[in-house]
């Protein structure tokens, strides 16, 4: 697709060709030892998801080969090696490869070709198109992060792919028709003298796009319920000849949403399997979890639907295996299972590395540019539970930017507060040279800066909501920084505000924790009817995290990327000195006694 008017004629014809006339994938017959001695064949599905711009096994923020505490590896180049190995092992047998989305955002490599040298300006092929075309996927589903850089870039990336991009529930707001290809039906050969197997593949993207990328899609696209969309298309695919139906869905299996009830469910995959008959298996993503094999019983047919999610960043590869038999002129699945492969067991595929080498090298050179010198080391290690200079750096730049922009307007006299979240637990500005990669490691998302007006009462409600991040700890109970936060609340959904002084009492129940909220450097309580301008990122302002009161008309929105504002500020100053911006204004307490 993505023109707002729907898929082009060329794309529709290409998809039809892929569905009806794609080269057949040969499969040698297997002979099962079942009681009836029926002849069986097999099909393997390999699945990836949430690769997030990772091609090389490389940490751009650390300028080193990627490694973590569990020694995971990352990247499409590693996935390619596993996929090639399995294809070689199964030579002559049917193997399909799908991806469940979130592909073109998440690393400095992806950001560079969306922001610094956007493919829409240069015409260069996107590194994720180069890498994935080497693998030769059968289809990819669009994830919510595919929409981060606007529809023109997404449209070009899709056109650069050598395989279909699917999103059945993304609808053109003007025509009411699908904005992307909803599904494909692949013809797969199961061997000599065996009838062709027709595999239906339905793609479902995440409804949260309507919130998280409202600025890019509002008035152009709407995002329908994933369950209802599956219920619509699965019968259509069956009627059009699909012998088996696979879904590639960018949504988790928890059944919950990070936003309010105004949008369809964010993570409905298990509900799709339970409620929609006719589905054989679902590859899913979005939640970044490793779900090796999960079976969900369909409540209407009693059939078991196979689910699997392959973690994130190319760390894992899902393998689903299906045994098929031909009964009464119809294909049936007699057995299905899933396993998970770890990419740290293989080397990177040289063809993928070669295809992206120049772009990778250019990105590495870019992120290693020095932007300023820091007078002392600053770290985010304690930023979740202490007011730290490095988080105040974000808030200072945001508040200063908004203050300057509102000079001479009706909002010029209002105090400016600022919101920042501890996106990373490991980001560091070293004493001495600070590079672009250090700033990018602090602010890992491609958010833009906005501002709205909140009352004192709304500020208190906002802080109360943020304070649910912490577990409840009675006075005197031991405090462990590693377990002080609720594991169900991600770090990016905890906000610290600058511009007011406040205490968070973690001995008290959620909703009653802001025990002190005063004007800076005073004992004067913030009045409920007081007014403040709040600098906030676009994700939060558009409803991400479901924070109260923040979804309202902006008083500032110049589409400035926050990461770039931080870089620009540092370059202009030449020095990053906490004395210029660190103002401790919040703390955790229990009955008024500081926790730390």
From TrEMBL:
Localization (cell): Cell envelope
PROSITE patterns in the record: 5_NUCLEOTIDASE_2, TAT
Coiled coil (residue ranges): none
Residue ranges occupied by any Calcineurin-like phosphoesterase domain in the UniProt entry: 44-289
Required cofactor(s): a divalent metal cation
Principal location class: other
Annotated ranges, domain 5'-Nucleotidase C-terminal: 370-548
Keywords: Hydrolase, Metal-binding, Multifunctional enzyme, Nucleotide-binding, Signal
Stretch forming the signal peptide: 1-32
Top-level taxonomic group: Bacteria
Reactions catalysed: a ribonucleoside 3'-phosphate + H2O = a ribonucleoside + phosphate; a nucleoside 2',3'-cyclic phosphate + H2O = a nucleoside 3'-phosphate + H(+)
Stated family: Belongs to the 5'-nucleotidase family.
Protein name per the record: 5'-nucleotidase C-terminal domain-containing protein
């Amino acid at each position: 697709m993505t023109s707002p008017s729907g898929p082009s004629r060329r794309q529709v014809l290409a998809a039809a060709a892929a569905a009806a006339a794609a080269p057949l994938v040969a499969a040698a017959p297997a002979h099962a030892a079942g009681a009836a001695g029926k002849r069986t064949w097999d099909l393997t599905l390999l699945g990836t998801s949430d690769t997030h711009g990772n091609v090389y096994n490389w940490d751009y923020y650390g300028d080193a080969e990627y490694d973590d505490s569990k020694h995971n590896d990352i990247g499409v180049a590693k996935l390619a090696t596993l996929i090639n190995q399995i294809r070689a092992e199964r030579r002559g047998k049917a193997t399909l490869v799908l991806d469940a989305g979130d592909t073109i955002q998440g690393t400095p490599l992806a950001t560079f070709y969306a922001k610094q040298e956007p493919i829409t300006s240069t015409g260069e092929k996107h590194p994720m198109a180069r890498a994935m075309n080497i693998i030769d996927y059968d289809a990819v589903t669009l994830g919510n992060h595919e929409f981060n850089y606007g529809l023109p870039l997404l449209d070009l990336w899709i056109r650069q792919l050598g395989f279909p991009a699917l999103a059945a529930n993304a609808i053109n707001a003007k025509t009411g028709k699908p904005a992307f290809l909803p599904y494909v039906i692949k013809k797969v050969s199961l061997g000599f003298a065996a009838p062709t197997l027709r595999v239906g593949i339905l793609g479902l993207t995440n409804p949260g796009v309507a919130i998280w990328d409202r600025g890019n899609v509002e008035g152009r696209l709407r995002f329908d319920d994933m369950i209802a969309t599956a219920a619509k298309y699965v019968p259509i695919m069956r009627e059009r000849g699909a012998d088996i139906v696979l879904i590639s869905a960018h949504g988790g299996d928890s059944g919950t949403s990070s936003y309010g009830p105004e949008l369809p469910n964010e993570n409905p995959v298990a509900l799709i399997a339970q409620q929609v008959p006719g589905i054989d298996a679902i590859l899913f993503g979005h939640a970044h979890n490793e779900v090796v094999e999960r079976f969900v019983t369909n409540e209407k047919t009693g059939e078991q639907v196979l689910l699997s999610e392959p973690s994130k960043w190319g760390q894992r590869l899902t393998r689903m295996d299906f045994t098929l038999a031909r009964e009464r002129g119809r294909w049936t699945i007699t057995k299905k299972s899933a396993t998970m492969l770890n990419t740290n067991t293989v080397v990177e595929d040289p063809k993928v590395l070669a295809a992206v080498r120049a772009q990778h090298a250019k990105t590495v050179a870019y992120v290693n540019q020095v932007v300023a010198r820091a007078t002392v080391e600053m770290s985010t290690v304690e930023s979740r539970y202490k007011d730290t200079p490095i988080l105040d750096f974000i808030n200072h730049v945001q508040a200063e930017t908004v203050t300057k922009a509102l000079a001479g307007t009706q909002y010029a006299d209002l105090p400016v507060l600022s919101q920042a979240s501890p996106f990373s637990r490991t980001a560091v500005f070293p004493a001495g040279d600070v590079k672009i990669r250090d700033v990018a490691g602090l602010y890992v998302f491609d958010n833009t800066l906005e501002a709205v007006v909140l009352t004192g009462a709304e500020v208190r409600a906002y802080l109360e909501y943020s304070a649910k991040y912490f577990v409840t700890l009675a006075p005197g109970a031991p405090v462990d920084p590693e377990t002080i936060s609720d594991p169900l609340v991600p770090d990016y959904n905890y906000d610290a505000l600058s511009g007011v002084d406040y205490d968070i009492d973690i001995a008290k129940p959620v909703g009653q924790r802001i025990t002190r909220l005063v004007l800076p450097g005073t004992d004067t309580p913030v009045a409920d009817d007081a007014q403040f301008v709040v600098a906030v990122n676009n994700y939060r302002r558009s409803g991400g995290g479901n924070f109260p009161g923040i979804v309202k008309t902006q008083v500032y929105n110049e589409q400035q990327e926050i990461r770039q504002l931080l870089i620009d500020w540092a370059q202009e100053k030449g020095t990053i000195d906490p004395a210029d911006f660190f103002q401790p204004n919040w703390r955790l307490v229990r009955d008024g006694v500081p926790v730390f």
